[in-house]
């Protein structure tokens, strides 16, 4: 080693060296949590749950629906993902949520389309009597569920996490069940010019 | 400045691959070439390369206010008007920049001549900052090079310091065209250094960017607050997603104002402002009245990388053309200057800056006068 000034004092790599990648592995300490999935409040009650709780949980999920459902700019795009006749606009959703709500729901002009809610995850249903799961790390929020066009038998969260194939009790990873705002997303990013001018690198 | 043959390190290819340098050989031809190296004196490095690099950089920076204040210049540089205000804002708010590379013609004597600035997406970073550094240490350890030998190469140190000191929002996304291994290699190296500086880094292929209400988002729809992109600004402005640049709250590396300096139009502007500066070559914008290219002149598109679409006629009338995809932008003309020749190869010096400081050199060799992406990379030492 020299003590010169013209070159770097060290040139270490931490990510590019294969052995170092081990540092990134293994964060799998999360445990699955039991929860339940139902089509609606009636089905929930039919599984011998207290009807009042079923109704409350269902309402909670419906409230979240407008916020978290994936949004599309056209009905066609939405139906491509969720199937013909399975999409709605936020306003009609709001109307069906609360038939007593008057004309104020006319703000239908959002112009977005989103899939209809096909069921709900009853997050708190099985946690009666205080934390069903010992020291349950992260809770599973009650939320709406959807079914995609190409897989009508699976309940999925708004962010496309499969949850269950049938109604009833199921296990989920809490970290994968955290609802996020569902926005109108355009994908595509950049890169088109590089494709046109193919076989080149972007640097120089 | 001289070229000296040296024995290659046994097993260097395996070593290169183990550190992610997968493109050391391209299409069966060597890209990293350690059959020889270049030797400079300290005076050559400090007086002829380091100092002029920083001076040329300051000269280039001094042009930015001139350009932003003059629509004719923005038009000459082919910057789409929709982006003028946004671009000016990136300069007015002093958005920090990371790095750049000047390409210099230098033969060991006399002033180095500026051929162009690569100020937006310069590559050969890993070869310069890491691989040639390790090469020197290895050859010294093996006793093939004297212990007193040094290298003009503080690139990795300076990049790490820059990542640690630039006010950078986090996480910082690093992005390149999906599937391009050379670009991904550069990205991996930068992410590695940024991580060592304590930056929270994420990789995202450029094609996977999304947009929500004018904000660029990652594949999980999280807003992208800071992004290093290894992709030319001039492409981004002209793609469908370009409009979102105007509305997205995203800090960019390089910042938008850097696109003015990576444009070959900067060469005639430099010549206009600093005519007869010893490190500059005469350069002019091509226009409808320009005569056919004459002997001793070079024609370059405003936007071009890796030597593409360059046409050259040397003083003897010999003509050299490299095809490429950049036929759609205006051209500039630059006076020809010969690259020095060593062992039949033409040698070009890439002189790096991190922030505003000179940070080292990387050397490229080609069988022709136009340096291309296939041109070999050779290491160097400083020894008096």
From TrEMBL, chain A:
The keyword Cell wall biogenesis/degradation does not apply. InterPro entries: Biofilm_formation_YgiB. Residues 154-178 have a biased composition (Polar residues). The keyword Cytoplasm does not apply. Residues 1-25 form the signal peptide. PROSITE patterns: PROKAR_LIPOPROTEIN. Residues 129-204 are annotated as: Disordered. Pfam families: DUF1190. Keywords: Signal. This is DUF1190 domain-containing protein. It comes from Rheinheimera riviphila.
From TrEMBL, chain B:
SUPFAM superfamilies: Glutathione synthetase ATP-binding domain-like, PreATP-grasp domain. GO terms for molecular function: ATP binding; ligase activity; metal ion binding. It comes from the Bacteria. Residues 12-382 form the Glutathionylspermidine synthase pre-ATP-grasp-like domain. Signal peptide: none annotated. The keyword Transmembrane helix does not apply. Gene3D superfamilies: 3.30.1490.330. InterPro entries: GSPS_pre-ATP-grasp-like_dom, PreATP-grasp_dom_sf. Keywords: ATP-binding, Ligase, Magnesium, Metal-binding, Nucleotide-binding. This is Glutathionylspermidine synthase family protein. It comes from Rheinheimera riviphila. The lineage of its organism: Bacteria, Pseudomonadati, Pseudomonadota, Gammaproteobacteria, Chromatiales.
